[in-house]
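Need tokens for this chain, all 373 residues.
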Amino acid sequence: MKFLFRILGLVAVLAMSLTDVAPAWALTSRIKDIASLQAGRDNQLIGYGLIVGLQGTGDGFRASPFTEQSMRAMLQNLGISTQSSQSNAKNTAAVMVTANLPPFASPGSRIDVTVSSLGDATSLRGGTLVMTSLSGADGQIYAVAQGAAVVSGFQAQGAAASVTEGVTTAGRVPGGAIIERELPSRFKDSVNLVLQLRNPDFSTAIRIADIVNGYAKARFGGPVAEAKDSQEVVIEKPREADLTRLMADIENLVVETDTPAKVVINERTGTIVIGSDVRVSPVAVSYGTLTVQVTETPQIIQPEPFSRGETAVQPQTDIQAQKSGGRVAIIDGPDLRTLVAGLNNIGVKPDGIIAILQGIKSAGALQAELVLQ
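Here are the structure tokens for all 373 residues:
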């Protein structure tokens, strides 16, 4: 409960700070921070490879026969015959290699890759990814990855106990992939720019179009932007404009953003996030909880001296039932600070506040979208 109050208190302090500073700082953002270029999206790459050099934490060839097949095929490609040899060493692991190819990436540049175990390997720490080709959705090879894997988790075990922290069967190879093929992109030949809002909203899309048209009228003498829907804003290229310079100027324009009112609840962790535009109509709330505590205190009964009795255990159970809460509180949230203060005054645990917010939504008093995770 203290942790939740700290979260709600932090939200209240943030709301108070937002009302004390200039509105331009609190409600405006650059276009590059709220929208992305449709032609400048990432592309996913995938590949299958082997990690070698593990300290006995790799795949077992019986449980993961594909690891042995891959190792034999790799050695045969290097001119080493392995037909009559058998190995039980667990220093090799089969992994899936994934990466994101950034937009406008040129051959020779490097990107990070992620390696994830496919077999029964217990740890990839200390291993090295051997040369692995990374392909796109079209089947073409766009990058080749190789390098030492960095694993954040660790594992230590003994004869009777073991300790594991984090995930030891997945890691990263920083800068491990070299781009060999560039994407078939013709940015300079495009006739327009399409901006996609990361948080779709009609008000924000219209404001972006108005800001861009104001810039275009002063620079080129006419409007060039149109909001197609809540997510896309299309900007036509003026004849005398350079597309790269035009995008550089537009992405630094400042726009007043708008977001719908939302309350996000994660019932598993007890986290509650309340947006700044959330409003609650006056409503009375009563919340009470019943706590039942069962305590087992068995007693040992010893026989009398010089008797032939036996030691016995007499069970003893103590059950206590306590009902708390039950107070009726009035919550009226015309702004974020008042709403947070009202929730804090109720004095219930996180699951209680989650139930109260759901009840307020069912009563029609919560003027916001309730998102349950």
